[in-house]
Amino acid sequence: MRGRGVFTDPQEQQTKVPTGGSYVSQARADGFVVFDRVQKSYDGEILVVKDLNLSMPKGEFLTMLGPSGSGKTTCLMMLAGFETATHGEILLDGKPINNIPPHKRGIGMVFQNYALFPHMTIAENLSFPLEVRGIGKSDREAKIKRALDMVQMGAFGNRRPAQLSGGQQQRVALARALVFEPELVLMDEPLGALDKQLREHMQFEITNLAHNLGITTVYVTHDQTEALTMSDRVAVFNDGRIQQLAPPEDLYERPANSFVAQFIGENNKLDGTVETINGDKCTVRLDDGTLIDAQPVNVSKAGERTRVSIRPERVESNPDRLARDAHLVEAEVLEFIYMGDTFRFRLRVAGRDDFVMKYRNAQDQRRLSAGDKIRIGWRPEDCRALDA
Ligand SMILES: Nc1ncnc2c1ncn2[C@@H]1O[C@H](COP(=O)(O)OP(=O)(O)O)[C@@H](O)[C@H]1O
Ligand SMILES: [Mg+2]
Known about the structure:
Residues 1-21 are annotated as: Disordered. This protein is of the alpha+beta class.
């Protein structure tokens, strides 16, 4: 199911096709869920969503990931129809969402605080969205049974929410969002209140259910592991904008800017100035004078300031494994942490004490200890020269 995205970068979808005198983008015409230049202000002054362009194909599992306050919930609320966009348009299956009454939108929703009705039994909780949609009694019973079985809660129909654990309640909330067979499900930090083990189990259940039922899902979280493991694509939010929209592997391997690089996974950052650029390779003079190899991503000419980003597992302490002309960097081992399957080293590099190198615990690996002076390097493509 992965990699079914229509496009990976909102800036790329500039192909305009004329329709009846006005111009809409190709993505807008094709997507099942479309945000088209959406802006939102609550107070008429500050934009909390600044310029949102997003097009999701049917069946996609898309996660909005970002720090608190970056506008994720606001986007979900606009899609659900509880908030209106200040500018721009949101479309569901080609139709502007404002024109569709809420109960006809076919959207199921799950939130962090379950929001089950406490005075109703589990079965009654699931019956409610069906009654609202005018579905008859025998149909309701069949659908309720099927939805509860789906989340392994078939035996609990007669209990009340208070008689269930947090995880069970969250499963019921999921069943209630799915019971009327919505085409689109929105989930806002639905697992935030659960402990780690249950959360990981539910992550697996939710993605399986969504994919098996072919449901289009917009999932909101501030947890990057959750986003990477569950999603077909992830939209990284910061300050009301999508910083990068890409499949998990692209986000991790090819972060588009410094924000994404530091937000997703662990990453070493070093500041410097571009010295030479030659195609997809460049050299960067770090502020302490060290010269390193990098790949130009957000820099285009010598003299530009940059912040480079290198993953700890891409740092090489054996120069034999690098190209002969690779630039090597002096480093001192400050700390060695044995982590079982991996070794982790904190190094002093280019005047910084927080540089991390990590490698697999394997027979042929050199054991290093604090105080060792070593030389490290990396392949240019593993070191991304991003915005300063
Ligand atoms: N109902 C509201 N009225 C006014 N401001 C709001 C409201 N809801 C959210 N905000 C503000 O909008 C910004 C984005 O919030 P939100 O969408 O909840 O972010 P997130 O879900 O990413 O944490 C925040 O600055 C928040 O304070
Ligand atoms: Mg939120």
